[in-house]
Write a structure and sequence with these properties.
It is a single chain. The chain is an alpha+beta fold. Helix content is 37%, strand content 19%. It starts with a helix and ends with a strand. The chain binds one RNA strand through helix 7, strand 11, strand 15, helix 11 and strand 28.
Length: 814
RNA sequence: GCCCCUGUAGUCCAAUGGCAGAGACAAACGACUUAAAAUCGUUACAGUGUCGGUUCGAAUCCGACCAGGGGUACCA
């Protein structure tokens, strides 16, 4: 079997037949939307793509065989930094590099036999696409969900650019390994925190449909906690400060008060005090601290006493106020009540500065001497009205007391922060806002969209800390839409995660000019029935897309609140136990593997390697073995001598049973993501059929044809070229991709007789053939009258006899 | 530190609480061959990370521990 020739033979035929076009209006088949995460066009496809798309293809092709109108689109996540870097290096527009790579990847996907609907392709860098990013931005803006604020962002002093969190690896810039620092910039945000509760609570509908791991990661990321807000008066300040705590029950144990050193509150409190100088010096020190230092887990606590006091609302005590960097400025109110006996961080701090530790929850050990804060439940002491209560009782009692005095209330808090979408980069979606000295922020009118990117020619794209767009004078300087005075466009571009948050809807009608997507089509196709992609996107992309979908629901544009009904995370392809990389020298090139073994063998190897969510170690698998198997399957089709349409009913019963058992097991396996098992069933059927041909019913038996046809169809979800060849050899017209999955005949799944085991005290005594329909009484009787069993029984009365027809009888003696 | 996942033949992996083996890789031997490759056939290989518990019965359920992997990083 010459796979090169076979590949060349079928590609034009598939182009012609386009079996996976899903847009025909007269198509009455039920719809199914299968979506692979779209690739970033950096170079050609690699082994990771090969695995992901092989798995997505199994699912898409399977449902097509099962009679569904499957939509399986592909596109490119085409904005992003690598294009910009390539552009700088090659001194040309990022667009050229991007579209070149898209063409390369597209050709590889075609060769890889991906069952994509090539009529639905989209590229996020097309103005026709990013126009709608801008439109969504304006909708967000109008709904109060897009806003600007100053905040400290990751900054690489060497590259002179802002970095996303994902680009900071262990405190270092992923590109140049410089130590990343923080820089304060005015940035755009989407208010995802408004949706925190819904993002969390709606996950109950994804239970069992998404990997538990992903749901867990999202829950942790959102990080909802419950507790209370407590109002502290500050001596010498009119305004009180509210702090959030999960442990209002320990308020009587508070011995000091801490504000985030980098917060405005800290600066204000320090001002004019004897501590001001010391505070400023401290602030300088921690501002210079890199993430590396910050990441040190054993980092000792530091801080400055501000010579100010807060009043504990529970007992009127004066609490010294400290400023420290162990309190985060952007969580809660940037200030905490410190109860060292029952909070480890507070205890660590108290130990450094010799602050008092007061136990309010009784425990065998004393935190002050052990250095271990006691966080467990216990009886409250030294706490006035809370004495004698346990933790939950004390929490609600304290909240009642505070509430009655207007000094606090129950509250929730989230770890989730708003989504920073500004990027100081060229190759992205321009933010459709114009800044006017007189009118302030003015949104671009919807009918003026898209705000096109300027020509990159002549622009300096090299990173320098400000957006390259700002230097495009003719582009950036525009009259204010409101007052016609001089104004400037916002020069930042959007995070590319905006692009991918709604692309699944654009596929429904990627050429639509009047809207981002067609709500009617969305009703018919969306949400996505099956999403397939890497676990690397477990948090950000999936969370953002869920957020967008909820906003769209609130806008009345879609009638669902979750974008992806089922999610499959495939593992990575690794080599010798570790991720492939050039520097490690363990890179396996996909094109080499394809040239050596053929597309089908590589796809089969990916699918057969193990459960899809596990990593595939290319050192552990055998594309050569896959190729051999494909040859065996293919030869089967050539051996069949009975004609197309022969009546299978007269075929060899044993082989027919094997065929229907295999079909049944394989479909069950595919539907539960056990693709490797489905392949094993196919291999089993091939082996059985081979034996039937050579040493059994012979090649002319109709059951052999039935089996070979089943193999072709089962194989076509994994190895489309081989399956197509088999289908042709079996006398059919192309394409096997549209052949219906054979209907499993239930009667052929039933065995007349099965081997049962008889146990005595759980140990196997006998194996007997019994009718599979045997009744419990008959089965028990049969087992008990076996000579060897009867011998054991003589004179003794069993304590219990467990009968599980038709598989097992267990006779238990005391 | 906290949270999650996974531990089954030499290797990758299967087994609704019911005979540990479906499938494959690698190995050994054999057939074919002048020989090799390819192909075909045969064989061998573990008692399921450890300890305890539940059960008539545990790879499977529960608990502790060990090992590997992943997520997260002072979130009050």
């Amino acid at each position: 079997m010459d796979f090169e020739a076979i590949q060349e033979k079928w590609l034009p035929i598939w182009d012609d037949l386009a079996p996976f076009r899903s847009g025909r209006p007269d198509d009455t088949r039920p719809k199914k939307y299968v979506l692979d995460m779209f690739p970033y066009p950096s170079g050609d496809l690699h082994m990771g793509h090969a695995e992901a798309y092989a798995l997505g293809d199994v699912i898409a092709r399977y449902w097509a065989h099962k009679g569904f109108n499957v939509m399986h689109p592909i596109g490119w996540d085409a904005f992003g930094l690598p294009a910009e870097n390539a552009a700088i290096k090659r001194n040309e527009s990022p667009a050229i590099w991007t579209y070149e790579n898209i063409a390369i990847q597209k050709a590889s996907m075609r060769r890889y036999a991906c069952s994509f609907d090539w009529d639905r392709v989209l590229h996020t860098c097309d103005p026709e696409y990013y126009k709608w990013n801008q439109w969504f931005f304006l909708q967000m803006y109008n709904r109060g969900l897009a806003y600007r604020k100053d905040s400290a962002v990751n900054w690489c002093p060497s590259c002179q650019t802002v970095l996303a969190n994902e680009q900071v690896v262990a405190g270092l810039c992923e590109r140049c390994d410089a130590v990343v620092t923080k820089k304060k910039l005015n940035q755009w945000y989407f208010k995802i925190t408004d949706y925190a509760d819904r993002l969390l609570d709606d996950m109950s509908t994804l239970e069992g449909e998404w990997p538990e791991k992903v749901l867990q990661m999202q829950r942790n990321w959102i990080g909802r906690s419950t507790g209370g807000e407590i109002v502290f008066e500050i001596e010498g300040r009119n305004q009180p400060v509210t702090v959030y705590t999960t442990r209002p029950d320990t308020l009587f144990g508070a011995t000091f008060f801490v504000v985030a050193a980098d917060s405005e509150l800290a600066a204000e409190l320090a001002k004019g005090t004897p501590s001001e100088k010391e505070f400023n010096a401290y602030l300088e020190k921690i501002k210079g601290a890199s993430d590396i230092e910050r990441l040190g887990t054993e980092r000792p606590k530091t801080g400055v006493f501000l010579n100010r006091y807060a009043i504990n609302p529970a007992n009127g005590e004066r609490l010294p106020i400290w400023a420290s960097d162990y309190v985060l400025a952007d969580y809660g109110s940037g200030a905490v009540m410190a109860c060292p006996a029952h909070d480890q961080r507070d205890l660590d701090f108290a130990k450094v500065y010799d602050l008092p530790v007061r136990v309010v929850v009784a425990h065998e050990t004393d935190p002050a001497t052990t250095g271990e804060a006691t966080v467990a439940d216990g009886i409250h002491v030294n706490s006035g009205p809370l004495d004698g209560l346990n933790k939950p009782e004390a929490i609600s009692r304290m909240l009642e007391i505070l509430e009655s005095k207007n000094q606090g209330k129950a509250a929730k808090n989230y770890r989730l922060r708003d989504w920073l979408i500004s990027r100081q980069r060229f190759w992205g979606t321009p933010i459709p806002i114009i800044h006017c000295e007189k009118c302030g922020e003015v949104p671009v009118a919807e009918d003026q969209l898209p705000v096109l990117l300027p020509d990159a020619k002549g622009l300096d794209l090299s990173p320098k800390g400000t957006s390259p767009l700002g230097a495009a004078d003719t582009w950036v300087n525009v009259p204010c839409p409101k007052c016609a005075g001089p104004a400037k466009r916002d020069a930042d571009t959007m995070d590319t995660f905006v692009d991918s948050s709604w692309y699944y809807l654009r596929y429904l009608n990627p050429k639509l000019e009047t809207a981002a997507f067609d709500p009617q089509q969305a009703k018919e196709w969306a949400p996505v029935d099956q999403y397939v992609g890497g676990v690397t996107h477990a948090i950000l992309h999936l969370l953002y897309s869920r957020f967008f979908t909820k906003v769209l629901f609130d806008m009345g544009l879609v009638n669902f609140t979750e974008p992806f009904t089922r999610l499959l995370n495939q593992g990575m392809v690794v080599m010798d136990g570790s991720a492939m990389s050039k520097s490690r020298g363990n890179l396996v090139k996909l094109s080499d593997e394809l040239n050596a073994h053929g597309v089908d063998a590589v796809r089969l190897t990916m699918v057969f390697a193990g459960p899809p969510e596990d990593d595939v170690d290319w050192a552990d698998v055998s594309p050569g073995g896959s190729k051999k198997f494909l040859g065996r399957a293919w030869r089967l089709a050539g051996d069949v001598t009975s004609p197309v349409g022969v009546d299978f009913n007269s075929g060899d019963l044993a082989l027919r049973k094997a065929t229907h058992r295999a079909l049944n097991d394989a479909q069950l396996a595919v539907e539960t993501y056990r693709f490797n098992v489905a392949v094993a069933r196919t291999m089993e059927l091939v082996n059985v059929t081979r034996k039937a041909i050579d040493n059994g019913c012979g090649p002319s038996d109709p059951a052999v044809r039935e089996a070979a046809e089943a193999v072709a169809i089962m194989l076509s979800i994994v190895a489309p070229y081989t399956a197509e060849e088999m289908w042709e050899r079996l006398g059919f017209q192309p394409t096997v991709a549209l052949a219906p999955w054979p209907t499993v005949i239930p009667a052929l799944l039933v065995e007349d007789e099965v081997e049962a085991i008889v146990q005595i005290n759980g140990k196997i005594k006998e194996r007997i053939l019994v009718p599979s329909a045997i009744s419990e009484d008959e089965f028990r009787e049969l087992a008990l009258t076996l000579p060897s069993v009867a011998k054991e029984l003589s004179g003794k009365t069993p304590k219990a006899i467990i009968v599980r027809p038709p598989k097992l009888v267990n006779i238990v003696f005391g």
